[in-house]
Specification:
This protein is mainly beta. The protein has helices at about 195-200, 205-210, and strands at about 20, 30-35, 50-55, 70-75, 90-95, 110-115, 130-135, 150-155, 170, 175, 195. The termini are far apart. About 40% of the residues are buried.
């Protein structure tokens, strides 16, 4: 079990931020110490966008392609990031609450000190990403993949991981609590994770199959 000191660090935000109105995102745009509320930024195509010390509430970024996106000290609440493509993104000291991340693509991304609470993160991809001190709390992660990802001190609490894919992933100091792991792929890659006993029992058949153990019928 990871020590309490390894929980994600919260973003450092001042009590008030300057309200900003943004109609579009340009390449290498930098938004710093601002607050965006109910902004519609759908289908944006921009590289190297930086969001630093920001609060986003009800912001729509669905369908956007934002390669090498940078978010540092951010608080996102009620945002729509569905089908956002963020290859090589760097997200640090950020909380994402009650937001929609269905189909988000974050291959080769790096997430450090990130907390996701009550979010839809289904059909998402974290392929070849690195996650360090990341917590998924009460999140829907069905059919999401962590293919070849590196997870260090990542916690899944009260999450639905039905048919999630961990093939080729590397886990260290990770934990699963009160989570649904039905039909999870890549069970053999969960070496290094900690689980509650009911979850282990529920996975018994899948674990046996991964180890090549045949199940005998009772005499």
């Amino acid at each position: 079990m990871p020590p309490a000191s390894h929980t994600p660090r919260e973003p450092e935000l001042p009590p008030q931020l300057e309200l900003a109105e943004i109609a579009a995102l340009d390449h290498d745009a930098v938004l710093s110490e601002v607050e965006l509320t109910t902004a519609t930024l759908i289908d944006q195509h921009a590289r190297g966008v930086t969001l630093e010390t920001v609060r986003l509430t009800g912001v729509e970024l669905s369908g956007s392609r934002l390669e090498h996106l940078r978010i540092t000290h951010g608080a996102l609440d009620g945002c729509d990031l569905a089908n956002l493509e963020g290859r090589g993104a760097r997200i640090a000291s950020t909380t994402i609450s009650h937001s929609r991340l269905t189909g988000i693509l974050l291959p080769e991304a790096q997430l450090t000190d990130v907390t996701l609470r009550g979010c839809r993160v289904d059909l998402a991809s974290f392929a070849s990403a690195r996650l360090e001190r990341v917590t998924f709390e009460d999140c829907l992660l069905t059919q999401s993949d962590f293919l070849e990802a590196r997870l260090d001190t990542v916690r899944f609490h009260g999450c639905d991981l039905t048919r999630a894919d961990f093939r080729g992933a590397s886990l260290r100091h990770c934990e699963f609590r009160r989570s649904d792991l039905t039909e999870l792929e890549g069970v053999a890659s969960l070496r290094g994770a900690a689980m509650e006993w009911p979850d282990i029992v529920a996975l018994a058949g899948v674990l046996a199959a991964a180890l090549g153990i045949e199940v005998l019928d009772a005499d």
